[in-house]
Structures are given as C-alpha cells and as structure tokens.
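=== How it folds ===
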Amino acid sequence: MSADSSSAQIIFNTISASEIAQLPKLTQLELLTGFKSDLSNFDQLDPEKFGIIRREGKKLRRYRMKDYRVYFERVPEGLAIHRILHRNTLADFLFRSNLPFAEDEQLGEAKSFWKLIEEGEKAQRKP
C-alpha cells in the first residue's frame, strides 16, 4: 500500500459494521468522510486525531473524531476497522479498568482492551 491511504479500501467486520450502522446517517457520513480525508497522508498523521496502541508487536491505530473513536490497522487489502466506539463507552471501559482517559500507552497494556479488539478481529469481515 502506498503512503497515500485516502483511496485505500476500508474493511469492516460484522461488529464494526454493526457499530457504525447504529449511528445516525449524518454521523456515519461525517465520520467516514473525516476519516478518509484525514488519511490523505498516512505517514504524517495528525497525532491529535490518530494514536498508536502497541502490545506484543501488534500495532493498532486510534482515530478520534468528535465523540467517536475508530480502532483500525493497515492490512494488505486496505484498512481493517475493528471497532467504532462512542467516547463515553470508551471512558466507561477505561474507568472500569482504572486507567486514565486518553493514555494510548496504558490502554495498550490493558488486556481487556485487547480482548475487545480481538473480538472485532475474529468477527467475519463484511464484503
């Protein structure tokens, strides 16, 4: 995949497809449009909107837009979207995990976060 990921295929699994489908249509459009335009130069992503979460050699990215967080990774076919979470859902998760909000490094260490992501990875991909 080239550094220009704005034209990369976005691949949803059944969980992330369900999560985005539950959002109002206008929110879906804003989220996807913003996500695609912010990916115009993948190698120089805005750290305010994109975070990196690492664990045991695995690298996951977090895209932040308004009240939503999109957790994804680069795959040969494009960008695999694992989860789309409302920030309050994530805040609740972090609270339950006793982690401070918005700390990608600490989030990367939380086993329960990776379980949430693995659930998305194992979900069947939508064509």
